[in-house]
TrEMBL record:
Residue stretches making up the Histidine kinase domain: 426-644
Stretches assigned to the HTH araC/xylS-type domain: 832-931
Name under which the protein is recorded: histidine kinase
Reaction catalyzed: ATP + protein L-histidine = ADP + protein N-phospho-L-histidine
Keywords from the UniProt entry: ATP-binding, Coiled coil, DNA-binding, Kinase, Nucleotide-binding, Phosphoprotein, Transcription, Transcription regulation, Transferase, Two-component regulatory system
Pfam families on file: HATPase_c, HisKA, HTH_18, Peripla_BP_4, Response_reg
Organism: Hymenobacter telluris
Gene3D superfamilies with a match to the protein in the record: 1.10.287.130, 3.40.50.2300, Histidine kinase-like ATPase, C-terminal domain, Homeodomain-like
Amino acid sequence: MQTFSSIVFRSYSQRPHWLLALWLLLLPGCTSPTEKPKYRIGFSQCSTTGSWRQAVVAGMERELSFHPEVQLRMLDAQDNSQRQQQQIRELLRGGLDLLIVSAYEAGPVTPAVQEAYRRGIPVVLLDRRITTQDYTAYVGGDNLEVGQAAATYAARLLHEQGSVLELLGAPGSSATAGRHQGFTQGLTAFPNMRLAAQVTGYWNAATLKRPLRLALQAHPEVSLIFAHNDNMGRAAQEVLRDLGRSKQVRIIGVDGVVLELVQQRVLTASLLYSPAGEDAIRLALKILNKQPYKRENKLSTIVIDSTNVLTMMQQREKILAQQTDIELQRGLLQTLRATYASQQTVLNGLLATLLGAILLGAVAWRSARKNRQINHQLALQNVENEKINRQLVSKNEEISFQRNQLEELSAQSRADTEAKLRFFTNFSHELRTPLTLIMGPVEELLADSANLTAPQRQDVQLVRRNTQRLLQLVNQLLDFRKIEVGKMTVRASEGNVVDFVQDIVDLFEKPARQRGIRVQFQVAEPVLTAWFDGNILDKVFFNLLSNALKFTPDKGRITVSLQASPDGQFLRVSVADTGPGISEQDRAHVFEWFYQGNQQAAGKGSGMGLALAQGLVRLHQGQLTFSSVPGQGATFTVELPRELPEALRAHAEAAPLHFALDELETIKGSFPDAAPQPSPDTELLVLVIEDNPEVNDFLARKLRSDFRVETATDGHTGFRLATELIPDLIVCDVMMPGLTGLEVVAQLKDDWRTSHIPVVLLTARNAPEQQVEGVQAGADLYLTKPFNPTFLLESLRTLLANRNRQREHFRRQLSGAPDTPAAASADQKFVADLTAIVEANLTKANLSVEDVARSLGISRMQLYRKVKAVLGTGVTDFIQSVRLLKARDLLLNDTLTVTDVAYEIGFSSLSYFSTSFKARYQVSPSEFRALHTAPPN
């Protein structure tokens, strides 16, 4: 019996060969595409809450979009180790080709992971490790490196000294252990950094707030918080805000997923801890496809802060846009595959039709030709599909390359920022020191103008004006640095803006009048109040008016107008000039730093004024805009809010005094009349400690007309000379190699031999917080370079006058006078110790100055200068005073004779005792006893 296929073959054996080939092509199974093997991957996630965990899942989904042959099943343990054990075993029962585990706690999950590994199922650990080596591969960040990087960055923020609080994750987590170990190891490199406290937050923002609040209240010295993830860092910021310490304490987090936390300064920085979702899927596919792979896959980390967060956000947006394109192309591919499937169905129908046609013997040849055309179209479609797949792979490689580039750019950006900050700091200090050497002699020449001719005086005034201009440029550079690093803060108070602007406009009246320029101030109301920081806005309006005066031609006009907005919420201050205006090519660059534009030679400037003004206005939550018509002038408008947030308002406190160099004559008359005016042959000794040889010589020459002067060129030598010579006053620089000025002051105030000596600090560091740091160290006066020599001399005289008043206080104490307000505690302790030594040796008639100095552990000269500085008397006179004071008490005891009293207090001669007693108290010992022990009438 013949089969059906043999009948068909034989009936067509006489047909053309192409028809036979078509028949063989259409046999069932010949056109079935080869399918890829199916993989089942199980993922045990400790939790899906939090932005970092969500980023892990999103990364896995992105990678799986390229691998439709893989099926992923994920279970969420919701931060419960017991539940995670059960879920891992549930995944194993469902059948798996590979298991991915992100453990909540290392110990409890280990048995379930070991069970999967011993059954031959590959296990990939994601982010968290377990307590066994029974796993196939690990992928995730290096928590030890993250902790070390956080410690290094924290040390740089706090200048390598300060107290730190650490927010720990879950106690059993490998991430918690690694980050804590790396952070503590990193801090060992900075001996002045101290880990003040630790708070366990269990990765949960809600549970850590109360213990964190208690820890911060117990440790007010904490200036930085290291949180093991960004979520706890955000909760720490809320606690700090409630305590009013958000500006004093900085926060470093870990994750780097929600970049807005760094951009909005909720966090000072965040350590990038890559979610590694894509990496986990790629590693799993290498294992399943028997490809080479690494067992340990540690992902690097970078610090995300204000220097690179905008770049990171831009790259993230670009990656998301590219991912959207990939999704669109994947959708197109799915559409094409659906078309392919539908065409395959049509093909099968046609095959059935063809077979029926063959059986019927009617339309076999036509159906075969049509089927071949369809196959040709499918082949073309397959080629197009392969092309799309290659494009998707290329896009993915491009994204990976851009991510690597971003990490390199971020590292370079950090290095560039560090170099820029070091440059500005050194640049400021190096400029202020020579300015001191210029301004001092110039001011003295102008003060002694009688010896100068008119041309010479004009030349000296020209030098002073240009030196002041150079100082203004240095200050603008420092303001630029403060704005760049976020160090400049607004401290607003409520006041009348009309009076404030009027005062600044008045300063420009005289220079404008000299050029025939008319300055008009137009105001809608006599009083317009607002909250503003005068130290910030005066720089804004000064720069705008200086710019207007520079570009306004002679006989021109400058108009300053001030008015409130229609809704009353803002104030607008406009500065309009009649200058040449701003060209079209310059308008886009007006507010750029150091841009000078196409100006005339006479109008050339530093290119910092308008950029600084805009930065300061923005800092004040306002806007600076401009309008200009070429040839008709320009108008700059400052719009300021009348109300400011509470965080920008200053508390009631004394405002710091800022003296301009040309205000010296006013300052001179403000010193007390009691200040001493020593002659050149005075015994007063001043010690100058300054590492710059020229400044050191300049100070010594200026002070030798009024004092004896000794000098030192470094802090160690200066402290040694201070303890040996016991000077009456010390003038010390702050920035010195080795022992800094602040450290010298601290050591002087801690040593009772030198604690009484007034100290004046001279420095180029003029920031308010730096001045506060100097005063806190114990300095009596803090002067910034460049300083005026006359002002320095008057300051020294005032400090010495205060020391005289303190000396009188001790004299009254020794003479038995009524108590006066207490002096410095270190000096009081010295007087008390000295008195105790003398009283313990009163019976020794031969008690010498050397004996007392030896008991105190100092030299005879040191003791003499200390007693002279504190009490204004010699050591021998002091011993005599203590003996006679003791004699008064003993004379009141009528059981002792006068002779007994004399020998009791160390007098070997009764006549000498009587003479000394009468010289001190104007009565003899016998008369004193008769006056105070006489029986009542």
